[in-house]
Request: fold
Amino acid sequence: MDATPPPPPSCRICAGEVTECLDLGPQPVSSGYPREPEEDSGYRFRLAVGVCSSCGMVQQLEEIPPTRMFGGSYPFRTSTSRHMEAHFRDTADRLVRGLRGQRDPFLVEIGSNDGSLLRTVAEAGIRHLGVDPSSAAASPDRPAGVRVLVDFFHEETAKAVRDEHGEADLVYSANTVSHISDLGSVMRGLDAVLGRDGLFVCEDRYLADIVRNTYFDQIYDEHFYLFSVRSVQALAERFGFTLVDAEHLGVHGGSLRYTIARRGTREVSPVIPALLAEEHALGLGDPSTYLRFGDRVRGIRDGLVGLLRELAGQGASVVGYAATAKSATVLNYCGIGPELLPFICDSTPEKQGRLSPGTLVPIRSPEAFRPYPDYALLFAWNHAEEIMAKESGFTEAGGRWITYVPEVRVTGARS
Ligand code: DWN
Ligand code: SAH
Ligand code: ZN
Reply:
């Protein structure tokens, strides 16, 4: 018998050694909402995460073909959150102000979805192009004047954009680049499309916030990478760029907005070494950090399932609120199905009348929230303020919200 252990996985970016440190079990595609149980394709992958000892990139170990996740039936719409719409309006205003002095500037957005950011760019009369393969991007309902290429951004599409529209002064992307396992192709595409003094501004959930708050549900198929300053800096350097700035944002539980320029064209902000030191102190490059994270996740799972069983035993009614992509990880990892959670309310028409991926919890419109249940399990904890304000009648009627990160909590309960 050959007892040689299999070689450790290698980093998708730098080919360094990746140490596996978290396994969230078999998971379905988070955006696949079957209409009925028979429509579940049965496709599952192992949601396992590792950290690269060389560049620090936290990444998944199994890749899913992008066309299984994104494309014609991708249901997420940025504009389901008013808070996120306002965030992208403010962001676009800032980007537009930065471009104003230039002659006929051109902005490209990777992952423009329903045009929540490009709407403001179009209104300002700035030449732009969104690149996104989803139906949200293709929809005739997208805001007037917003131009899109309905396709995946990679090296070839980037070259095609440059050949047709010329070089970009700014490439912007939110919550998308981390979703693309072939990041080398994205970086070569940026090299092809960005002008000499162009900037790449990219925001994504921040690994440090995920680790600090045990946001384990930010890990699901689409989030192939969990970015940090260290790993994004290494990525930029590898492809002839430099990470010149980073700004902390409150959205999605804590994000960083990275600014990347061609090497030698901009000064590096002192924020970068400061954040690197913080990340080092937090142990973000150390596999044991994620082993401890895994222990906390198991504690949350046991606490949440225990609470739901206890409430069921008392005859209390509990429904889910917001069928987020994040909820796929929670439901499948914890094994929560319709027997513990009869349905989830969600305002996205594309999700209503369907079933949650894997554990098949029915998704209904927010109208099904009335008459109010006793408890509501909030999967969009990142939009807690917006949702709790919108549903203030629920708590006024004595209803209680359940959240599960950074730990299981019930509003109004004595701790
Ligand atoms: O990175 C990603 C982010 C931007 O969006 C993608 N990979 C997928 C998706 O992640 P998510 O589904 O976890 O995102 P959200 O923003 O937490 O999703 C909110 C969900 O909640 C949507 O399905 C809409 C719903 N919702 C609702 O029913 N009532 C949201 C609000 C604000 C509401 O009032
Ligand atoms: N930027 C928006 C949408 C994020 S959801 C926001 O922050 O709310 C992720 C988006 O990335 C989806 O619209 C999906 O279709 C798109 N996407 C996935 N892979 C892509 C790729 N290779 N190129 C461009 N867009 C991509
Ligand atoms: Zn690496």
